[in-house]
Structure formats: C-alpha cells, structure tokens
Amino acid sequence: MVTATLFPGRYVQGPGAIQSLGQEVSRLGDSAFLLCSPTVYRELLPEVNSSLEKETRVIAEKFGGECSDEEITRVTGIAKKAECNVVVGLGGGKTLDTAKAVAHYLKKPVVIAPTIASTDAPTSALSMIHEPTGEIKRPLWLEHNPNVVLIDSEIIVRAPARFLTAGMGDAISKWFETDSCRRKQVSTSSGYKGSIIAYSLGVMCYQTLIKYGPKAKKDCEAHQVTRALEQVIQANTLLSGISFESGGLAAAHSFDRGFGLLKETHHNLHGEIVGFGTLISLFLTHKDEEIIDEVYSFCEAVCLPTELADVGLHKVSNEDLIKVAEKVCAKDSIIYRESVPISVSLVVKAIRAADSEGKRRKAAA
Ligand SMILES: [Zn+2]
After folding, report:
1. What one-character-per-residue DSSP string does 86-129 give?
2. Å from CA of 288 to ligand 1 middle
C-alpha cells in the first residue's frame, strides 16, 4: 500500500512573525507580488512593506473580494506584468486561495500569511474556486503546497474571536473524520492512502483544542497572545491542515454542502457549520456518551453551535431537513467514508438527535 503525506515547505508562527516575511520571501526570490485583502491593504500594508522592502522589490495589489476564475485571471495578468518571482498572499481565506491559484498558474513559489485562523486551508495544495456571485464552483488542485505559511499571532488576536472559534469548529472534526478514513482505507486528495502522521495529528489536534480551546477564545477576546492561543492557532492551521489533506474528510464536512442549501444558514462561517456537523456525526456513528459529552462541553465553552437554532434554523421544517440530508447523501458524498449505514432517514434522525442534545444541555445548565 502506498501512503503519502503533504506538507507546506515551512511553517512559521509567533508574535511579530510578520517581521520575518521579507527574510522568508528572499529565500525564494528577489521580487514579491503581494496580494492583500482590502482590510490588510488599508491597515497593515505599511507595516508589512517595511519588512519586505528591506529584502525584495514589492508590488502590492488589492484583492477584489472573490476567489473566482475572473479574479484569478485579473491578478495573474498584473503579477505577470510586474515580473515578480514570488507570490505572497496576505489576508483571509479567499485572498489566500487566490494567491495560491495565481502562483500555480505562474509556476512561482508562494508564501501564505493568514491574518485570521478560521480554517485549515492555508497549508493545503488546494484553492476553492467560486462563481463571482459567491457560490462554490470547483476545487483547484495545486501542484504543490505553499512554500511558506507564516502566521503572526499578534495579528490573529486583532481579529474578532469568532474567526478563531470557527477555526476550532473546522479542526475539532479532524480526529473523527481521519479516523473514519483510516478504518475504510480511503484514498486522500494526494491519490494515495493516508499516513500515520496525518491520523496522529488528527488526535493531537483534538487534544490540543479540548485542553486549550476555551482559554484561547478568552485570550483572543482580550487581544492577548498567550501559550493557549499559540497552541490553538497551530491546531487550527497546521495540525488540522495536514490531517485533513493527508488523512481525509468524512461526515462532519458533508454538512457544509447540505446546510448550504438553506439560505437561513448562509451567515455561518465554514467552521461553525462543520463544528455542528461534527456533533451530528457523533450520533450518526454511535459514539460513546463520554465523547459526546466532551465535544458538547467544548462547543459550549467556545460558543460553537450546539443546536439547529444556533445555525439559523429556529423553525426548520422536516421537508427542509430531508433536503439537507438528501444533499449530504448524494452519490459522490464523503459521508460514505463512515463505516456505518447511511440513508436520508438516518441522517435526519442524527440531525434531530444532535439538536435535541444541544437543547437538553442548555435547559439543564
Ligand atoms: Zn474544513
């Protein structure tokens, strides 16, 4: 059996790490094309430029707001004209996915500097392409993972804590999902089977979140960089990223597609839906009471959704839940990576069970 593990080239994290951006970029080339999210362009660019300009020539461009084929073509054209030999993405998920795609088409190295820790996308060799109107269009599999992922924890704590919490929702699923993929010997996005390190990082990610998550959320709200916060940023980004890419996703992530059918849920961040999807998956896969209690306690402590009302579905009809379940049970769905029987009625039953447990615990608190 052939296994594979995908890694980013380097992972740099800590307070003030942005000051090392110039040094990291200069390992790869002498001229940087910097794609920034609009907020970063407005507020952070002078700080970043002072580090970058010491080491390289810099051309900065503001991200247009959607990681679409149109935006990728626009940005690729500007970067090509600027004759830069390194692409740098600075901002949130869609800015970073666009920077990764631009580097892929230009065949240049890419440095990714997230300003929020809301998903595990920064480390992966994948960009999610959207329609200009925002709907998901297709995944773009990239030739290689980012050469450098650089996270300044002092920048992460400037953002609302909701982003860090969503990142924890995205990451808490990984132990359960990679374990399901391991049992079923699922091939991952690399085309090979998952590796020991990917499965082990899923477990480590879970343990780190349970131990440090609630404190990290409070520290983030207080805009303080602490050990707990550093541990959680690493769990949300590096541990979760490697475990999903080389271990595989399963039931929890299938609910992102499913609930996406109902517009009442569209205000949620990816990790908020995946966190609730994880709770549903615990019932679907008949987990022990102690584990269910531990994950609910965690979600309650960090303010992740624990009932349908928390994701915007206060009075959801049975017909709508059936639609969600039908989407979740579509032929190509990753839910079939679970080693339990899967059907529309079983999925609806698991959604109702997760919702009831969330309600019961809140009433008892
Ligand atoms: Zn995810």
Report:
1. EEEEEESHHHHHHHHHHHHHHT--EEEEES--S-SGGGSSEEEE
2. 24
Residue 108 CA, ligand 1 centroid: distance in Å: 26
Ligand 1 center to 120 CA (angstroms): 6
227 burial (CB, 10 Å; 0-12 / 13-18 / 19+) is exposed
Query: Which pair of tokens denotes residue 186?
Result: 């699922």
Helices marked H in the chain: 21-26, 38-43, 45-52, 69-81, 93-106, 153-156, 161-172, 174-184, 196-221, 227-234, 240-247, 251-259, 270-284, 289-302, 318-328, 344-364
DSSP code, position 3: B
Query: From the CA of 139, how far away is ligand 1's center (Å)?
Result: 13
Q: How far is the CA of 253 from the centre of ligand 1 (A)?
A: 6
Strands 31-36 and 57-62: parallel
Q: CA 253 to CA 94: how far, in whole Å?
A: 18
pTM over 0.85: yes
Distance 251 CA to ligand 1 centre (A): 11
Report the separation in Å between the CA atom of 207 and the middle of ligand 1, taken as the mean of its atom positions.
Answer: 18
In tens, the pLDDT along 27-44 reads 999 999 999 999 989 988
Q: Which two tokens stand for residue 341?
A: 């029987």
Helix (H, G, I), strand (E, B) or coil at 160: coil
Q: Give distance in angstroms: CA of 81 to centre of ligand 1.
A: 34
Cα distance between residue 297 and residue 306, in whole Å? 10
Centre of ligand 1 to C-alpha 252, Å, is: 9
Question: What is the per-residue pLDDT across 6-29, written as a single tens digit (0 to 9) for each?
Answer: 999 999 999 999 999 999 999 999
Q: Helix crossing, 344-364 with 318-328: angle to 10°?
A: 120
